[in-house]
Amino acid sequence: MSPSTWLAVASGIALASACGLRAFLPLWILGLLGRAHVVHLAAKMQWLSHDFALLALGVATVVEIAADKIPVVDHALDAIGLVARPAAAWLASYAVFLDWPTPWGQVASMALAVLALGIQVAKAKLRIGTTALTLGHGNPVVSVFEDLASLLMSLAGLLAPVIALVVVAAVFVAAARERRQAA
Q1: Which terminus of the chain, N or C, has less C-beta within 10 A?
Q2: Structural domain boundaries of the chain?
Q3: CA dihedral (137, 28, 151, 126) positive or negative
């Protein structure tokens, strides 16, 4: 595999991971960086950088981030996220894999949608735990960390994909260790 293929894989994993936390923020960043010509978007994905898409994704990002700070509403967003976040991950990773031969880009995008679903489920479980421990008062704090993680992972995935891949791997290793120690 060529270096550009490995960079696409790293970008796709980072974007899918970011989508597992926030559905619209990674897509909005992808569109903004495409608009600024920092990231090359294939012809079929150029719509992400158009005015209407950027406006819609920007508004959706602000609404998602703000609503996630409200107890009870955050749990409703997690329920909606079971569908929205994997779909966003599929779209974001497909934008990166669009130049891959059929069916490999589609298959890789579907696999990364499953990754985003796993992150979404883990996030929802964490949110239930923080709700129980803090009666919901800790959820906005956790939400801010999720916002930052999604933002940084999106930027790193598009601007420094190898670093993003290392960070994603480190988070998974740390989570696995934590799970083993808890058991």
Answers
A1: C
A2: 3-182
A3: positive
